[in-house]
Specification:
Chain B: One of its GO terms (biological process) is double-strand break repair. Chain B: Pfam families: RecO_C, RecO_N. Chain B: Belongs to the RecO family. The complex is a heterodimer of chains A (about 190) and B (about 240). Chain A has 8 helices and 6 strands; from the N terminus they run αααββαβαβαβαβα. Chain A is of the alpha/beta class. In chain A, β3, α5 and β4 form a beta-alpha-beta unit. In chain A, α1 packs across α2. In chain B, the strands form 2 sheets. Chain B has a 5-stranded mixed beta barrel. The chains are: A alpha/beta (about 190), B alpha+beta (about 240). Chains A and B meet through α7 and α8 of A and α1 of B.
Chain lengths: ~190, ~240
């Protein structure tokens, strides 16, 4: 029992109390439920790997987006994590390809370009006909530093580099917006004529 | 759980759970503060971008039973947008807040340190100077009571022939004890007037090999005290 609790407490966001609660739940549940959970974990570990081109999660060497002939192969959207890719896919606004960096520059935590998939991105840009790279890293200090670093690396290649806009969340109140976000929203305003 | 107000600069933050962050701040009255900002990673957070590092704020916090306080309200005084949109300025800005985070102990606020921190970030935002980082570091060392000995050899007290700088001794050494790093007369002069509080005089100087010397010595002095590298300085230098 303690071994099971210890394993669950290693998971992100799971403390010892939650680990204990999950362990007791599984012990009380039907055999089939815990079998399905164990099988899903093993199956996912066995079949899911990194896409060799974009470093998204994939069951094959190349992910479903990379092999889709309908996608615009001249535009690459750069994100930090696969979950960011999923968020952008949910918008149904972007039809190009992706590149997952698997993190953001964070010198304090020891994350430099060599820990990210930047070298692979630069190789993609030199091999394929790419017109634009859209940098969609998080709008925090690490994400901004990563975007500025990437822009500096990509600009000499002549490929257009753009940054996802920062602004106000739809449904939010203007008065609660901080000055930095509001300033960027004004800066990135669009023509309505 | 008492509620308190303070003015503070955000030094660093760490992700906590699904949508929260632990924020490290330096407050004018409370010194180093560690507080949880709930929901700050959600797009509709009331805190917005205010709790990112290098932000000067008015804060209201709940003093919890643990060492971690809880951020209740935040109002920005200066968010330093120019620093955050230039990789070189960001490198210096992050180095400044990292040194405060690492060097200053958990005590009550020190108005001198707070003023120095805000003034350094403000200068970086408005007009960067080649001597900004070294000026900040040498002045901080002086405020912390570890200013270098520049009038005589730290080994023998000899006032002549001071051509080397000893990190471990935190001061100049004469040529007979000179196994340390060689230092130019120009660098001694600049460090001397920064340590006497004349930072503005250094900030007016242009870039030169002396600037690099003064900065490298300041960084190695700080790294000697915190026992590790100032990591933010690696940003953008890859």
């Amino acid at each position: 029992m303690q071994a099971l609790i210890d394993e669950f407490s290693k998971l992100p966001g799971i403390g010892p109390k939650s680990a204990q609660r999950i362990s007791f739940y599984l012990l009380r549940s039907e055999q089939g439920e815990s079998d399905r959970l164990a099988k899903s974990i093993l199956e996912a570990k066995r079949t899911i790997k990194w896409c060799q081109r974009c470093f998204n999660l994939s069951e094959e060497d190349l992910c479903a987006i990379c092999i889709d002939p309908e996608r615009d192969s001249t535009t690459i959207c750069v994100v930090e994590e696969p979950k960011d890719l999923i968020a952008i896919e949910r918008t149904r606004e972007f039809k190009g390809l992706y590149h997952v960096l698997q993190g953001a520059l964070n010198p304090i935590e020891g994350v430099g370009p060599e820990q990210l998939r930047i070298r692979e991105l630069m190789a993609r840009l030199s091999d394929a006909a790419i017109d634009e790279v859209i940098i969609c890293t998080n709008p925090n200090i690490e994400g901004e530093a990563t975007s500025m670093y990437l822009a500096r690396m990509i600009s000499p290649t002549g490929i257009k580099v753009s940054r996802i806009a920062s602004g106000l969340p739809v449904g939010g109140d203007l008065e609660y917006a901080d000055e930095l976000t509001l300033g960027r929203a004004l800066e990135g305003r669009r023509d309505m004529a | 759980m008492p509620l308190y107000n303070d003015q503070a600069v955000v030094l660093r933050n760490w992700k906590l759970g699904e949508a929260d962050k632990i924020i490290s701040l330096y407050g004018v009255e409370h010194g180093k503060i560690r507080a949880v900002a709930k929901g700050v990673r959600k797009t509709k957070t009331k805190f917005g971008a205010r709790l990112e590092p290098i932000s000067y704020l008015k804060i209201q916090c709940w003093e919890g039973s643990s060492e971690l306080h809880i951020v209740s309200q935040v109002e920005s005084i200066e968010l330093f947008p120019r620093i955050k949109s230039d990789l070189e300025l960001l490198r210096k800005g992050l180095a400044i807040v990292e040194v405060i985070e690492e060097l200053i102990g958990d005590s009550t606020g020190d108005i001198e340190i707070f003023k120095l921190l805000v003034r350094a970030l403000d200068t970086l935002e408005r007009r960067d100077s080649p001597y900004l980082l070294s000026g900040f570091l040498w002045r901080l060392l002086q405020v912390e009571g570890v200013s270098p000995e520049l009038s005589c050899c730290v080994e023998c007290g000899e006032p002549e022939g001071l051509e080397f700088f000893s990190n471990s001794g935190s001061g100049l050494v004469c040529s007979s004890h000179g196994s340390a790093k060689r230092i130019s007369k120009g660098a001694i002069e600049v460090i001397s007037y920064i340590s006497q509080g004349e930072v503005a005089r250094a900030l007016a100087l242009g870039d030169s090999p002396v600037r690099l010397e003064v900065e490298e010595l300041a960084i190695s002095q700080v790294e000697n005290l915190i026992s590790h590298k100032v990591k933010a300085l690696h940003l953008g230098s890859y």
